[in-house]
Amino acid sequence: MTYDFIKRRKLWYALSLFIIIPGLISIALQGLNLGIDFTGGNIFRLQFEQNVSSTELREVMGRSEVTNYAIQEAGAKQFIIRTSELPEEESTKFLAHLEKNLGELELLGVDKVGAIIGHELTYKAILSLIIASIFMVGYITLRFEFLSGVAAIIALLHDVLVTVSIFSLLQIEINASFIAAILTVIGYSINDTIVIFDRIRENLRIAKKADLLAIVNASLNQILIRSINTSVAVILILLALVFLGGETIRVFAVAMLIGAVAGTYSSICTASILWVDLKGILKKRKATAHRTA
Amino acid sequence: MGWNNTKLAFVLLFIFAVGAMAMGPLLSMINLGLDLQGGVHVELQAIENGKPVTEQDMVQLVQVMRQRIDELGVSEPVIQRVGDKRLIVELAGLEDPEAAVKVIGKTAQLIFMKADGSVILTGEDLKDAQATIDPASQMPEINLDFNPQGARAFADATTELAAKYPKDDPRRRIAILLDGEVLTNPEVQEPILHGRARITGGYTDYQDAANIAALLRAGALPVSMEIIAKKVVGPTLGWDSLVKSKYAAIIGLLLLGIFMLLAYRVPGFISLFSLTIFALIVSGALVLLKATLTVPGIAGLLLSISMAVGSKIIIFERIKDELLNNKTLRASIESGFRRAFWTVFDANVTTLIAAAVLFYFGSGPIRGFAITLSIGIITSMFTAIALTLWLLRMAVQVNAFKKTSLFGVRRAEA
């Protein structure tokens, strides 16, 4: 009962591109929906005593000095209001204005991020992604061969791109935890890919002269159950976090969930197949170089 | 064989009992983060008003903050300097966190004012204020120390007031106001020319004078500050997050346990016990490291648990492979573990790299995530390999567990 992964490789490549290409277009056109962690701003979480409709709230907001805002209903009499960055006095004034017009309210929570912090975060995010990637390529090259490293990194980029693409396409607002999720996805994806390369290496050692494609395919089949089961373990936990963990952790959990699924998929359908193809291209080039020489 | 049964039953029971008894107290010893118990996190930055912010300014700022927070009566406040000109203040478990932010962020305005309302000098000109006991009268008093500019202004004002109004005239008084509130309102006894003033009388006891002196010093904020970031979590929201995280953890772990039992039978069952030890070690480590558990931290823990399970799956699948090669159960377990070791190791190292980078570059909540994830991964390397192996070795000596089908492999002869 072996499944021929190698034969359908064009399908796997196409499937990945099917998400990534629209994703890239979306990133170019509308970018990511950056939350206040990146842009700076305030988020107020309010619980009103009386019934307040979003139309009423909007109307009262219209009469306040705060001009740049978005309102989101978050439950019974509960609202989340996002504004541009407000100095302390203005935010106090703003809350007093709401309380005066809409009755008693409980301030469940406030987040404020200054623009400086936002810029720092963006900078640190990019830097940490680069550094983490360098360390991981280094580690894989150390433990495997360079080509495996390249294939693993492309698979990893694939997972990051798929995750970012889906967030851009659906315009889900991202916060600082998104970066943590992406980095964890990278760690997870590499981890999954390593298991497969490990198995391929082992099988190559046992069957010295057999067909490379057949060995890779056999390895993928051997590892399939394990790969699916480990991701089921992660996905079960992530699903619990997405649905039960509350709003603070949702962006993180959703990003991890997408990344984990993409990571499982890519380590089976992208990394090893890419490695085979890369090896094939290199061999062909060597052969032509030989002929011309 | 009866002995083996008893031994395994005893060990498993022991693990279960320790887990059940220690887990509760251990969990209650872990510090909960602001997002779980409510509180404020405020990041302040000193503003350079023409002159650069010095080290001494920052030290003084920290003192001022400590004073202000003492007023709030918060237990275990965190006041931390970050970089050259930033402060992080964290206060947990407040009823009204937003009020605390106001106290922290207020721009203390200290003003020395004449009775006619004209300002003589401000906090900037006040160098120091100390409460002492006058050795002659045994009465508490406050000594003020002005900078040259302040000294001049004070000299002019006191000279003028002393010359213009008779003693006991209310217009001969100088009011000292902090944020519009009168701290003290002493009468000018005589012109004060050299920038050193004493405020005597009017203080009930030394503590009273010391408090006012502290406020005067606080008013002499060396630089003004700006709140560049804050996170306020009301008690309701914190409680809500705590409950939700608990539910997510319980349901997630339950699903994981059921899945392991269904997919891996005996090893799955055994792995649940090593997970109990895993949970104990991780909680213990969190307590010892005085780590603070946040919502992202809980996510990191759960994730590390699922990765610990992942490591076990690698091992169990390997054992299955070995069994399929017609090895004995015992031999399969030994070689399965040996072969899976490096795979598990490599896999965990890459995740650790990610966690380390996150820890280094991340702030607050992301660090919490990186810490719990790292502790979890390191612990899982131990429990997944050493502990599970030990338990499995014991289990295969029990007759009832000797069927390979219980390890997920059906054999004709089994």
Structure, explained:
The complex is a heterodimer of chains A (293) and B (414). Chain A has helices at 9-29, 36-39, 54-62, 88-102, 115-143, 146-169, 176-206, 212-244, 247-292; strands at 33-34, 41-48, 69-75, 78-83, 105-113, 173-174. Chain A has 293 residues and is an alpha+beta fold. In chain A, a hairpin with a 2-residue loop joins strand 3 and strand 4 (78-83). In chain A, helix 5 (115-143) packs antiparallel against helix 6 (146-169). Chain A starts with 8 loop residues before the first helix and ends with a helix. The mean pLDDT of chain A is 88. Chain B has ten helices and 13 strands. In chain B, the strands form four sheets. Chain B has a four-stranded antiparallel β-sheet with strand order 3-4-2-12. In chain B, strands 6-5-9-10 form a four-stranded antiparallel β-sheet. Chain B has a three-stranded antiparallel β-sheet with strand order 7-8-11. Chain B is of the alpha+beta class and 414 residues long. The longest helix of chain B is centred in the middle third of the chain and has 54 residues, at 235-288. Chain B starts with a helix and ends in a 19-residue tail after the last helix. The model of chain B has no long low-confidence stretch (mean pLDDT 83). Chain B folds into two domains: 2-34 and 235-407, Up-down Bundle (Multidrug efflux transporter AcrB transmembrane fold), CATH 1.20.1640.10; 39-233, 2-Layer Sandwich (Gyrase A, domain 2). Classes of the chains: A alpha+beta (293), B alpha+beta (414). Chains A and B meet through strand 5, helix 5, helix 7, helix 8 and helix 9 of A and helix 4, strand 12, helix 7, helix 8 and helix 9 of B.
- Biggest β-sheet of chain A: count, sense, barrel? 4 strands, antiparallel
Helix coverage percent of chain B:
55-70%
Mean pLDDT across the residues of chain B is 83
Strand content of chain A: 5-15%
CATH class placement of the largest domain in chain B:
Mainly Alpha
Give the strand tally of chain A: 6
Broad shape of chain B: rod-shaped
Helix content of chain A: over 70%
